[in-house]
Predict the 3D structure of the following.
Amino acid sequence: MYTRTRSDALFTAAKACMPGGVSSPVRAYKAVGGSPVFMEQGSGAWVQDVDGNRYVDYVLSYGPLLVGHAHEEVVAAISTAAANGTSFGACTEGESRLVTKIQTFMSMIERLRLVNSGTEAVMSALRLARAFTGRDKIIKCVGNYHGHADYLLVEAGSGVATLGLPNCPGIPKSTVEHTIMVSFNDLSAVEQALDRYAGEVAAMIVEPVAGNMGVIPPADGYLEGLRAITRAHGALLIFDEVMTGFRVHPGGAQSLYGITPDLTTLGKVIGGGLPIGAYGGRADIMAQVAPEGPVYQAGTLSGNPVAVQAGLATLESGLRGDAWEQASSQASSLMEGLAEIAARKSVPIQVNGVGTMFSCFFTEMPVTNWETASASNAELFAKVFRSLLPRGVHLAPSQYEAWFMSTAHDTEAVEHTLSAFERALDTALND
């Protein structure tokens, strides 16, 4: 019998000492109802909660765990690194090794700086873009999430959307007056913004494959168009690959689509489950970063030796042989199965995905931007989510979060998921 007695008790205790009882809002299950599951242990594609229930996991810490939970090479790398010292505040060999490893697959990044999170990477990249161009304005897409910096937390997809908020209180209007919003996949809107604010736009930042309003691929020609028009207007193009890096392709979206951005932000996979971020790109732009240039950025734990080794082990294992391709193939099989089950039950569904990240929307219309994503049936998603948990499948508790596949997910895990999805959908439809 499926019970979550201990999870419920832990959540009650957590609410007494933590805002909402969680360390990140989506974990509170507000978008799907009920109380959160407290996890205790993970191995490969599976996780186990504090009540002993096991689940096939498609959260994977929201993307970092490319090789699954507790991979032996990653665990060994972390153990060895920690035994040698958890932080030095000094240079270590591992930093340049990780950077070089990243550049092996993302050769368009000529110089790279390690930081502590994706948010920090984006903040630093935008400061650099403004300094390099001498301009202030930034263009971003509605529904794209670039971390919780004040000037970017505007119509930012999964984070605030999970709480039903268009924006975040506590941010002065003056902070976001230089943030220009456009619809994802709408090239003409970007061109109009660049024309209207000619000579004022420092950069456009974009998730090349959107992952924070569900997964939405770029329309044909969209990224190519962004590259051309930003260059024509003297604005930088920044790809936020914190989520897509090593997820949509071993070389990220920029390699998959053959587009060279001026700057790239990274995170998640490159830390193998430990806190990390990075930003980099053209050598002439990165030459402006201190101490080589005047654009200041620093961090006590930047290039942390334990996180660096976890990232190296993750990339070495996840990109070895055909491991990544097999994970992508399993993702394709699961997506096809989800679509087939829904079609058989006459349930409108759109299953979007690229590489090892994907999501489903209960809607008839193709999902191409925030407007179409937010029009999907979030109530049905919530019912399916709640029905999947007792059947041993763990998803992110929000319609607008991506699902992730790891190299540890095998055919058995996929078949278990499809069987559970069919039964959960039946339950949800009869609820």
Q: What stands out?
A: The radius of gyration is 21 Å. Residues 323-344 form the longest helix (22 residues).
